[in-house]
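For the sake of clarity, the format in which proteins appear in this thesis is described at this point. Each number in the token line that follows is a code from a learned vocabulary of backbone shapes. One such record is shown here in full, so that the layout can be seen directly:
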Amino acid sequence: MKMNNNKLVLIKWYDAKFCSGTLSKEDILGKKMATFESVGYLVARDKITTRIASEYNDEGEYRDITLMPTGSVISMRELTPCSLV
């Protein structure tokens, strides 16, 4: 069985938000970016993209990947996996 050396992380990040309809400037200035929190195994991070995976298997393959712009990351915290007894 291959071991996963990727850290389990909680990432808080901004994403785009779309607002339809006719809006005044004041309404537009009152809108805020969408803020998300995503948990996963940190696969890779560079200046452009941060990549996390929800799952990995014993062959070293990943599943359910989230890509986010690195510049949109607000915070990243390493998590400690819990063991079930």
In short: The helical segments are 25-30. The chain has a mean pLDDT of 91.
